[in-house]
Amino acid sequence: MTVRAAVAGASGYAGGEVLRLLLQHPEVEIGVLTAGSNAGQRLGALQPHLLPLADRVLAATTAETLAGHDVVFLALPHGQSAAVAEQLGESVLVVDMGADFRLADAADWERFYGSPHAGTWPYGLPELPGARAALEGSRRVAVPGCYPTAVSLALAPAYAAGLAEPEAVVVAASGTSGAGKAAKPHLLGSEVMGSMSPYGVGGLHRHTPEMIQNLSAAAGERVTVSFTPTLAPMPRGILATSSAKARPGVDTGRLREVYEKAYADEPFVHLLPEGRWPATGAVYGSNTAQLQVAYDEAAGRILVISAIDNLTKGTAGGAVQSMNLALGLPETSGLPATGIAP
Ligand SMILES: NC(=O)C1=CN([C@@H]2O[C@H](COP(=O)(O)OP(=O)(O)OC[C@H]3O[C@@H](n4cnc5c(N)ncnc54)[C@H](OP(=O)(O)O)[C@@H]3O)[C@@H](O)[C@H]2O)C=CC1
Ligand SMILES: CC(=O)N[C@@H](CCC(=O)OP(=O)(O)O)C(=O)O
Q1: Is 182 in the pocket of ligand 1 (CB under 6 A)?
Q2: Which long-range contacts (CB under 8 A, 24 or more apart) does 106-112 make?
Q3: Beta strand 289-296 pairing with 269-271
Q4: Looking at the structure, do residues 190 and 139 belong to the same domain, yes or no?
Q5: How far is the CA of 99 from the centre of ligand 1 (A)?
Q6: Residues with beta carbon inside 6 Å of ligand 2?
Q7: Which among 76, 124, 331, 334 could bridge 80 via Cys, Cβ 3.0 to 4.6 Å?
Q8: Is residue 338 part of a domain?
Q9: Which structural domain, as residue segments, surrounds residue 230?
C-alpha cells in the first residue's frame, strides 16, 4: 500500500517534523508541500535537515493544491485548519496538528482561542482510554497539544483507577520550539539562553481546558487542573511534574501496579524502573513518553513525572501514529522509539 501525503505548513516546526518522520515511513510517498508567506520558496532554504526534499517548491495553502492525496497533514496556526479542512473530501484523511478540533466544549474553545468553535474530531492520543478505537478507520484526527500529551499520559491512569482526588497540579517545562518559528520578542536567544521563566500562569494557558477534558473523561468526574508552563533554554522537550492528592488506600505498590498495567502493551509509553527518572534528553527525536511515578507519603500525594519530545510524541509523532491507526497500518510504522543521546 502506498499512501500519498500532503503537508500544509511544511516550512514550520511541526510541518518539518512530520516530514522528517514521513521520509522514514515505508508506506508513504510525500506529495504537495505548502506554506503561507514562504510559498514559492524551496524547502531546502527553510528546512535544511530534510535533504531529500530540498528541491521541493512550496505551494500556496489552498484546498486545490492539497487535493488528490490520501492524507493531508495540517500544521497551520490555530484557527486556520477548519477553513481548509471543510473543503477537503470526506474520504481524505485529514490530520490536524493545530488546536481547532481538540476541544468538545464550544464555550471552552471560545474562551481560550477567541473564535467560533469549528467542531470536535477523534483525539490523536491512542493511549487514552477509548481513543485508539475512535481513531481506527477515522478520516479526521485532532492531534493533541504538546503539554496535554505529557500531562494526560501522566495522570489518566491514576484517575481511571480512582487513585487521585480530582484536583491536579501541574508544572511543566518546554523547549522553545513549542512556540513555533515565527519571531517573538520573549524568544530571542538572549532572553531564553541561561534562563527559565513561567508564562500563562493562573489558569490562563489554552492547554488547561484540554487537560481538564482528558483527565475528567478518565476520572468520570470533573477534574480541575492548576497548570503552570515554563520556558526552558533547550530547543525540544517537555518535562512535566503532575501531582494530585491520593485517595485512601494508595501506596507505592498500588500506584506502580496501576501504571504497569495501563502501559504494559503500549509501544510508545515507557514506565521507567524504580529509581530512574524521565529526562527530555532521553526522548529527543523519539516518539516515546518516559514516565515515573512516586507516592509522597508525608504529603499524601501522587506524583508522576513525564518527558516527551514536544515535536515528536507531542505533535508530529502523535500525528503519524494516528494516521497509521486511521489507515489500518502498523501503529509503529515510521516512528522512532529510541532517542538521540547525548
Ligand atoms: N511546535 C510545537 O511543539 C507544536 C505545534 N503544534 C501545532 O502545529 C501548528 C503549527 O505550529 P508550528 O509548526 O510550531 O508553527 P510555525 O510558526 O513554526 O509554522 C507555521 C506554519 O504555518 C504556515 N502558515 C502561517 N500562516 C499561514 C497562513 N495564513 N496560511 C497558510 N499557511 C500559514 C507557515 O508558513 P510560512 O513559513 O510561509 O509563514 C508555517 O509553515 C500550530 O497549530 C501548533 O499549535 C502542535 C503541537 C506542538
Ligand atoms: C513553549 C511554548 O510556547 N509552547 C506552546 C505550546 C505548543 C503546543 O503544543 O501547542 P499547540 O499545538 O496548542 O500550539 C505554548 O505554550 O503556547
Answers
A1: yes
A2: 108/209, 108/213, 109/209, 111/209, 112/206, 112/208, 112/209
A3: parallel
A4: no
A5: 11
A6: 99, 145-146, 174, 178-179, 229, 231, 314
A7: 76
A8: no
A9: 147-311
**Which pLDDT score is estimated for 183?**
72
pLDDT recorded at residue 140: 98
Instruction: Considering every ligand atom shown, identify the ligand nearest to the alpha carbon of residue 77 and give its number.
Output: 1
Which pLDDT belongs to residue 102? 98
Q: Which ligand does the CA of 96 lie closest to? A: 1
The distance of Cα 338 from the centroid of its chain, to the nearest Å, equals 17
66 CB near ligand 1 (under 6 Å)? no
Task: Tell me: do 158 and 140 sit in the same domain.
Answer: no
**What CATH number should be reported for the domain holding residue 44?**
3.40.50.720
Buried b (16+ CB within 10 A) or exposed e, 60-90: ebeeebbeebbbbbbbbeebbbbebbeebee
Atom of ligand 2 nearest to the CA of 179: 3
Which residues belong to the active site? 146
Mean pLDDT by runs of 10 across the 342 residues of the chain is: 96 98 98 98 98 98 96 95 94 97 98 96 97 98 98 98 98 96 82 93 97 98 98 97 97 97 98 97 98 98 98 98 98 96 88
Confidence (pLDDT) at 186: 80
Domain membership of residue 95 (yes or no) is yes
To the question of pTM greater than 0.90 for the whole model, the response is yes
For ligand 1, the distance from its centroid to the CA atom of residue 77, given in whole angstroms, is 5
The Cα–Cα gap between 239 and 191 comes to 20
Name the residue of 141, 207, 280 whose CB sits within 8 Å of the most ligand 2 atoms, as the mutation to test its pocket: 207
| 96 in the same domain as 43 | yes
CATH number at residue 221: 3.30.360.10
